[in-house]
Predict the structure.
Amino acid sequence: AASLERDSEHPLARALSEACAGSLVAVAAPRSVPGQGVEGIVDGRRYRLGSDRFVAEWGTAPPEPDDTTSWVWLADEAGVLAGFAIGDRPRAEAAAAMQALREMGLQLVMLSGDREAVAAAVASELGIDEVHGRLSPDAKLEYVRRLQAAGAVVAMVGDGINDAPVLAAAQVSIAMGAGTQLAQASADMVLLSDDLRRLPEGIRKARQALTVIRQNLGWALLYNGVALPLAAVGLVAPWMAALGMSFSSLLVVLNALRLSEGSPRSGAGGNKKGLQSSVATGTA
């Protein structure tokens, strides 16, 4: 199992590889199926490692677990060989981050490839009311597109290979700093810190920036609307116009500098878009 997962960036794959105390063996013809698992040949036998649906395609379905842990199944073409139960604990700051996002008026949705019971348990611990489990990457993408068709502006947060298509499709996409390279390449920005509390901080800062932009544009329109007609009829001397323009520019700069107050030292890196409206969080 660890040999099959050796080159995977999936968190469950890393857990299996790190738990293996023995030496790994060579795997021929490795194949990864997004959202399902991996397949390969070891000593002439073909193996599959992944979800129950993935290994059941060979004819034998694994037993249905009755707990809230994530299960990974190992099978060959003759049947299921083993199952691995892997616990999934939310980050310590995750619940506080979700609470802050709700207080900002955002609708939170959790999209997960795990079983419904596992996804529901994590969502309940984090206070997320809407959760969807057993979703493939295509199903996650379809859900986000339905939200967008209904007029929602979707901000997607993810870290896995399976989240990459959804990150690319969302109006705003954020990849975690410890996430896969594909997820980071597909996202608009990367959260350099793995502290999820940076998400509400980033949204708050984006909203403050939008307010400052509107204030500066309003001041510029007001100043030019008054000063230009007066200068055109000769009521404002050139030196007065120069002083007025300098004062206006200084006022705009000072107003923008307010955004630097209380800025965290680490946070989100990237560009393109601010955060608005609704947030969907993805898990593998």
About this structure: The two ends are 18 Å apart (CA to CA). The chain has three domains: 11-86, 94-200+269-283, 216-265.
